[in-house]
Each structure stands twice: as C-alpha cells, then as structure tokens.
C-alpha cells in the first residue's frame, strides 16, 4: 500500500540491493581408511596434521613392529602441500566399542554415582589393564586413559575430575584435562553432564539412508570422555544446601564419589596388522576388506552435512573382489553429490602397464581419476614403504588450489610435483606414458634433476569431451558450488524481475572473475522471460541457463626447428 503524503516534508526510504554472494566453499578432502584410534565411522574434520595425530593417532605396535596406516600418510601429505582441512572417516573391521569407568561412592554400599565412557573405540585407545602398587597400568600406553576423582567437598557437594594418561603413575601424573567443582545436581551450572558432556552418535538406518543420530542433551566438552550415566537415585547436596533424593542410602556425603583413581575397561576391537608392511600385494590391505567401507560411504552422501571436493580411500584397489564394489560406490557418491572428484587406484603394487590400462578401461566416469605407478615414501615410523598414488594425489590438488585455482591442471612440473617421495615403483618411458594416457591413466613420471611429478590430467570418462580433463571437471564443481550457494538464498523469494536481477548481479561478476583468472574463455547467463514463461512461474520454478567455454590446458607443445644456410636473412 502506497504511503499517503499530506503535509510537506522530507521522507527517507531505503532500498537494499547490496546482496553479497557467498564465496565458493573450499571444503577440502575426504579420506576413508583405518586409523590407530579415534571415532569409528564418524566423519571428523581435522585442520592440521597435529590435530589428526591427537584424534586418530599415527603409529601402532604389532608385536615388535611399529606401523602406520595409509590414512595417516595421506592426511600428512595433504597438509604438507597446503590443504586446509580433511574429513577423516575411520574404518574398522568387526565390532569396536568404547571403554567405561565406573566410580565408587564414599559409602561402599551405594551404587556408582556416575559412569564415564571414552570417546574413542577400540582397545588401543583405551586401557584394559589393572594398576600396580604405584598406580601405574600393567598394560598401559601413551594412548590409553585413566581418571581420578579428587578434591571432595562435603560441605557443598562438589568434587574434581582429572583425565590422565594411562601410562603415568601416582608420583608422576600426566594430566590431560581437569574439571573442577563438579556437581551431581542437575540444576547446577557445574552439573557433571553439563560440564563434560554426555552425547554419543549412533549409526542409524532410515530405509536406504545411513546417518549418525546424536543422543544426549549436553555437547561433549572433553576431548577424551563423556558422562554416560549419573545415578539420580542417590543422595547428594543441591546448590541451595538441601539434600536431594534423601532416602535409605545414607547421607549425601556418603553418596558423593570417593577420592579414587580408575582405569577404563571393557573396550573391544583390535586394529589390523597393516598388511602394507608385510605383504603389500595382499588385497585386503591394512587389515580391512572392501565391505568394511560400505556404511561409511553411504553416510557421506549427505552433502548438506559433509563438505569436500576430493575423496580417496587409499588401500582399496579397483581390480580386486569387493574393492571394486566399494570404489564404484565412491565414484557414484562423487557423481551424485556433484561436488567432488574421486581419486582411485586400479591395480596393486607390482602390476604391469597392460594390467593398469585394462583395469582403467572398465571405468567410465568424469567424476573419477586414477594415477600410476605406486610410490615409495618414508612413514612416521622411519620405514620406507610403498603407497598407492591415491595417498598423495589429493595433496597435489590442494597445492594447485593454493598456487592457482581448481580449474588449473594439477599436473606438470609447476603444480604436479610430489614432494617427500623417494622413488616411483617404475620409471615410465615415453611409450609407457603414451599407453597409459590413451587409456585415461595419468602417469606419474620421473624426471632427472626435476623430481617426480604427475604428468597427466584425464578423468576416467571415455567420451572425448571437455569433461575428460580433471581441470574442467573441477571447474564445473567450483562453478556449481558458487551458483548453488547464490540460488539457495533466493528460495522462497518472490518470482519477480527483482529476484532474477539479484541472481544475475551475483553470478555474472563471479563468472567474469573466473574469465580473468583463466578459468573460462567466455560465458553467458540467461534468466529472463525466454526461459521463465508463465507455465514455469506457475510451477513455482525459476530457471537459469549458464553457458560456458572452459579454458583448455596446454598438453602438447610442438616445436619446429629449421636449420638455415649461412648468410640467410632472419629479417621480417
């Protein structure tokens, strides 16, 4: 309704057209595989290799050997080459459960005041050992945990809880976390569940969808433990000094936890033996079978919850048994999400060029790429180990994103170098590279004096088109992310020219910037009456058409040298 103006004056109006489009999201890489410890089948973002080590561990012991998983090497390589974040999903084989620690009440006849549960699952992260006379663990390690209740205050019903490293002792405590002035009163600001947290994530199936359901009211603020149960039938002192749940169990002072130390027990699940360090030709690499990955892959289908632009599962080999099924699932995942490219390995260590090309020809998808041969690197335990290319290629992508942009080829001596590798399994000849590249396998070449570098950037799409190149596929991923973010802000807006103009005002300048940054030759955006007819509007739709000409990379340089006779003129 128009404003009615009666008496003279100056009237101010506002028309906000300063819509700021969100920047294209840099989601990082997703890596699936076994880890030493940490959350099981729970995608977790780490922003540094140090954080990865803290959450998932680096090496583990098998007998007298110290071993490391490919997952750790992949994450380390990604961060070394400039990556900003990695979504790590720990894969295990069999049932992995957490350990628990039950406290004792001061009154020995009372039930446990509360129970603690470790966040990590599996026996490596938790100790099942008993204590020696000095308080040290019989089977403790630097990765195990223990707890201590201290500073009992009978006057106000508070106490402290310490999380300690499992291999310390009474005379040399290694305290990881301290929580002071805890209360068993749910109304207290220092209620133990509120301060430490009580949440757990449960893998849940809803039809064909697998997701993690969060159970528990309070977010976990501890890095190591959660409170899994507080016995509310006991007597304890509330904040106002009144005894709560007064009954037959005695006074509140007896039902507070006693000063004590305890270990976490009951964990199940052992890490695999890490077959790469025994028999690297073993198909069930790292103690896992392909089927162990199925649920984790399904969980990553939710692009609204998990964000990444590269996905790899080092250790899965396409040309072997159930591994093929799971790699196909990873490729389908990338395609269905439309925002990631899958880096896969098609053959085991020791394969021939013909083995590799034959395996690669069974895949046809622009959302996947493969590289060969295997590489040797030094693991965290100081051993020289052979690794498949998918372990380090996401790091090459990360370097390209930082040094240039996603639409530049992650290949060549400028951006395709692979640092911290010792040698390639095979030094490829020009004939080898030709054979591999004609089958859409990206060669990893060794150049004397220049090092080891990726020398190809084909996707596994068989059809000859712009999308048979990695840089074009990643360009489309980047553009779709940006335009999708802009469009999401316009859902439920009025279907008017103003809304169309808002879209165009955000998308056109962005695409122009991509032209300036060598990602496109040209583009055109159409969102007008020609594609938004009355029928379209009546269906509550808004249609935009984006036409692009992706910039091509130089892959072949032809130099003609002509020898002229003496005395020939080189003038114009």
Q: What's a concise summary of this model?
A:
This protein has 572 residues and is α+β, with helices and mostly antiparallel strands.
Radius of gyration: 30 Å
Question: Major beta sheet, specifics?
Answer: 8 strands, mixed
Count of DSSP helices?
Answer: 13
Secondary structure tally: strands: 26
Please report the distance between the alpha carbons of the first and last residues.
Answer: 74 Å
Sheet/helix structural class: alpha+beta
Strand content: 15-25%
Strand order of the largest sheet: 2-5-1-17-18-19-23-24
Q: What is the average of the pLDDT values?
A: 83
Number of discrete domains: 3
What's the CATH topology name of the largest domain?
Rossmann fold
Q: Which consecutive residue ranges, at least 5 long each, have pLDDT under 50? A: 15-26, 247-251, 274-284
CATH hierarchy: architecture of the largest domain:
3-Layer(aba) Sandwich
Q: For the record, what CATH class of the largest domain applies? A: Alpha Beta
Helix content: 10-25%
- The rough form would be described as globular
């Amino acid at each position: 309704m128009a404003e009615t103006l009666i008496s003279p004056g100056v009237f101010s109006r506002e028309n906000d057209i300063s819509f700021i489009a969100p920047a294209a999201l840099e989601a990082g890489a997703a890596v699936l595989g076994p880890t030493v410890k940490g959350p099981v089948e729970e995608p977790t973002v780490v922003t540094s290799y140090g954080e990865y080590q803290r959450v998932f561990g680096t090496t583990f012991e098998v007998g007298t050997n110290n071993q490391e998983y490919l997952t750790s090497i992949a994450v380390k390589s990604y961060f070394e080459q400039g990556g900003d974040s990695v979504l790590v999903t720990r894969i295990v084989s069999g049932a992995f459960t957490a350990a628990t620690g039950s406290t004792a009440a001061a009154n020995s006849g009372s039930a446990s005041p509360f129970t603690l549960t470790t966040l990590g699952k599996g026996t490596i992260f938790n100790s099942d050992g008993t204590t020696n006379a000095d308080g040290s663990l019989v089977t403790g390690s630097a990765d195990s945990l223990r707890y201590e209740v201290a500073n009992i205050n009978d006057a106000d019903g508070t106490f402290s809880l310490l999380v300690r490293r499992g291999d310390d002792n009474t005379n040399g405590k290694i305290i990881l976390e301290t929580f002071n002035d805890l209360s068993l009163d749910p109304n207290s600001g220092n209620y133990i569940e509120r301060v430490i947290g009580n949440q757990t994530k449960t893998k849940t199936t809803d039809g064909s969808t697998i997701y993690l359901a969060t159970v528990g009211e309070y977010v976990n603020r501890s890095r190591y433990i959660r409170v899994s149960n507080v016995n509310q039938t006991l007597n304890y002192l509330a904040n106002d000094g009144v005894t709560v749940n007064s009954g037959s169990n005695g006074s509140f002072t007896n039902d507070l936890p006693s000063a004590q130390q305890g270990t976490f027990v009951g964990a199940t699940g052992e890490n695999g033996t890490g077959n790469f360090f025994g028999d690297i030709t073993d198909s069930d690499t790292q103690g896992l079978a392909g089927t162990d990955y199925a649920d984790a892959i399904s969980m990553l289908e939710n692009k609204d919850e998990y964000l990444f632009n590269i996905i790899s599962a080092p250790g899965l080999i396409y040309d072997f048994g159930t591994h093929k099924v799971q790699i196909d699932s990873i490729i389908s995942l990338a395609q269905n999400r439309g925002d990631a490219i899958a880096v896969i390995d098609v053959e085991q260590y020791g394969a021939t060029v013909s083995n590799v090309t034959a395996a690669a020809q069974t895949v046809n998808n622009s959302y996947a790429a493969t590289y060969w041969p295997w590489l040797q690197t030094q693991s965290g335990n100081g051993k020289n180990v052979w690794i498949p290319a998918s372990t380090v290629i996401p790091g090459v992508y990360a370097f390209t994103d930082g040094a240039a942009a996603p639409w530049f080829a992650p290949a060549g001596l400028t951006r395709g170098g692979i640092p911290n590798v010792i040698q390639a399994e095979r030094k490829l000849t020009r004939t080898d590279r030709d054979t591999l590249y004609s089958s859409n396998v990206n060669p990893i070449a060794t150049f004397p004096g220049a090092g080891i570098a990726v020398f190809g950037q084909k996707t596994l799409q068989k059809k000859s088109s712009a999308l048979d190149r990695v840089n074009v596929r990643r360009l489309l991923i980047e553009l779709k992310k940006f335009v999708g973010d802009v469009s999401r802000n316009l859902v439920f807006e009025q279907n008017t020219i103003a809304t169309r103009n808002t879209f165009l005002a955000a998308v056109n300048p962005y695409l122009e910037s991509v032209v300036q940054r060598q990602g496109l030759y040209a583009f055109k955006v159409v969102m007008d009456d020609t594609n938004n007819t009355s029928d379209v509007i009546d269906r509550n739709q808004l249609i935009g058409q984006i036409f692009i000409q992706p910039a091509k990379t130089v892959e072949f340089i032809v130099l003609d040298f002509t020898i002229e006779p003496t005395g020939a003129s080189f003038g114009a």
